[in-house]
Design goal:
Layout lengths: L1 H8 L20 H6 L12 H6 L7 E7 L5 H11 L4 H14 L10 E4 L4 H7 L5 H11 L2 E2 L4 E3 L11 H6 L5 E3 L8 E10 L3 H10 L5 E10 L3
Parallel strand pairs: 1-7, 2-3, 2-6, 6-7
Antiparallel strand pairs: 4-5
Helix pairs in contact: 5-7
Bound molecules: zinc ion (ZN).
InterPro entries: ComF/GntX_DNA_util-trans (IPR051910), PRTase-like (IPR029057), PRTase_dom (IPR000836)
Protein name: ComF family protein
Organism: Flavobacterium cucumis
Length: 227
């Protein structure tokens, strides 16, 4: 009753399409949920995300949850997550995706979930890392450690999504660093980002993490973009 009243006074809108939410809908409306463009990458070993790193870095498993289309639901969700402080979108998608990937054999020995870090300056501007809640949900559901201390970004760079392959090669691995040395324990890092476009940022992160002896890498993103 109170919830209905509050909803009347402060109507909530869908983070995917801006339509008014019904009282039993949370964050995104039923229609957007139904229309979410799931990639099903986790069912295809040689999927488009995996192919981005093929021959560049060794990976155990790569997948993106959703297809990113310009002006589509996923773009709105990412925008709200990234710039409007709607961090509960990350939780919702993380819970959802955990159920999809929990039986993936290659992920069974993951030890740490590593968010692609923001530079301190950007973190301060935004107040949060947009991928944190998605990572936390994965960590909780898959029962592995959420490790946000290990990897750091040490230079402030503009978005790398528009860079071509030559420029991509120039992105120094040195923009990421490991905060401390690891023991000889075998590590399987699950590296997580919001959108994969060229893959250059994830590649730089992965190369840094792979410097740790006995480590291997898997990669998951919320969305996959071709452009
Ligand atoms: Zn909607």
């Amino acid at each position: 009753m109170l919830k209905n009243l509050l909803n009347l006074m402060f109507p909530k809108t869908c983070k995917g399409c801006d339509a008014l939410l019904l009282y039993n809908e949370v964050i995104i409306c039923a229609e957007c949920r139904h229309k979410l463009p799931l990639t099903q990458h986790h069912l295809i070993k040689n999927n488009s995300t995996f192919k981005k790193f093929y021959g560049i870095i060794p990976t155990e498993f790569c997948s993106a949850m959703l297809y990113f289309h310009k002006d589509g639901i996923v773009q709105n969700l990412i925008h709200n997550l990234k710039y409007k402080n709607c961090q509960e979108i990350g939780t919702l998608l993380g819970d959802w995706y955990s159920h999809e990937i929990k039986h993936v054999e290659e992920l069974k020995d993951v030890t740490d979930i590593i968010p692609v870090p923001l530079h301190k300056k950007r973190f301060k501007e935004r107040g949060y890392n947009q991928i944190t809640t998605f990572c936390q949900s994965l960590a909780e559901n898959l029962q592995v450690k959420f490790n946000e201390e290990l990897l750091h970004r040490n230079s402030y760079s503009k978005t790398q999504t528009k860079k071509n392959k030559t420029e991509r090669n120039n992105i120094s691995n040195a923009i990421f660093e490991i905060s401390h040395c690891y023991t000889e324990e075998k590590k399987h890092f699950l590296l997580v980002d919001d959108v994969i476009t060229s893959g250059a940022t994830l590649e730089a992160c992965a190369k840094t993490l792979l410097k740790i002896p006995n480590s291997k890498i898997s990669i998951i993103t919320i969305a996959y973009s071709d452009s």
